[in-house]
Amino acid sequence: MASAAIPADSSPDRHYEWQYLDLMRRIWNEGSERVDRTGIGTRSVFGAMLRFDLADGRMPLITTKRVYWKTATREMLWFLTGETNIRPLVLQGVKIWNEWPHARYVKETGDDIALDDFIQRIVEDEIFAQRWGDLGPVYGKQWVDWPTYQYQKDGSYRPGPGINQVAETIDSLRNDPGGRRHIIEGWNVAELDRMALPPCHKTYQFHVTDGRLNCALYQRSCDVALGLPFNLWSGALLQRMIAQQVGLEPGEFVWMGGDTHLYLNHAELVEEQLGRKPSGYPRFEILRHPATIFEYAIEDFAVRDYAPQSALKAPVAV
Predict the structure, then answer these.
(1) What is the mean pLDDT of each run of 10 residues along the chain (318 residues)?
(2) CATH annotation of 18-83+164-304
């Protein structure tokens, strides 16, 4: 598949979003075409990096298309509960995980039910949802309940208490801000085969500098057109929540991508978005300071002055 190179904008006014668009352009124009797990095919680069300063309410919120930041926020709050079933998300109108349990249901039962009908059953039938809405031990389970095992005298192992990595990271930031082990990890090798999708945004590391909390997020695999706008928002949101909890100002958010790609069937979205220019500087505010990071609600967050361009849609690769 070939297409004409899309030129970069040479404007001297470099809005924070240009680095995202520059990455998208580089992948589309120069990326290596690859056959991927989904069979759709991608253009890919390896080892990308984006940096955003979160001072003064700034957030890496994309303006060249509408990003549904409340949806991404609801997903992040769901992660922090440790929940792995899509039903709480579905009941809030969040659809981003629907395709994976639906695909599993169709494969295992042979019932070629439409996605909308499957999700309606998740809503109406709690027992059905318990059986078919679970994603396995994905993000939230690893973040707040990483499994441990205790050796028994008879030579066997039994489940031990889970590790709440988020709580431990907050505790370590409070008590040892200069430490180098402020890490939240999602890549539990022993449980990958039980997950609907192994974690893409897999490793978060935090770093304190002059009263500011920085965060580096490493993402092993990134769909730049559909996933990355959500990932940027969610990573910066987690950083801001943790910063508030430990009494620090938010600093720099650094995003790093391993296999960083665009799907070949996203050509219309990519070329439309690369023809647009960023506009405006939205500002983010946390309206309440809960006692713990596990007590935030969607009503605690506000975004000011966000006037994005129209939404762009493309199919999700499952």
Answers:
(1) 47 83 98 88 97 98 98 98 98 96 96 97 97 97 95 83 97 98 98 96 98 98 96 98 98 98 95 96 98 98 97 78
(2) 3.30.572.10
* Bridge partners, residue 254, by sequence: 51, 216
Give the active site residue among 27, 45, 195, 200: 200
For the question of whether the overall pTM of this predicted structure is more than 0.90, the answer is yes
Q: Is 200 in the active site? A: yes
Tokens 């690893």 locate to: 142
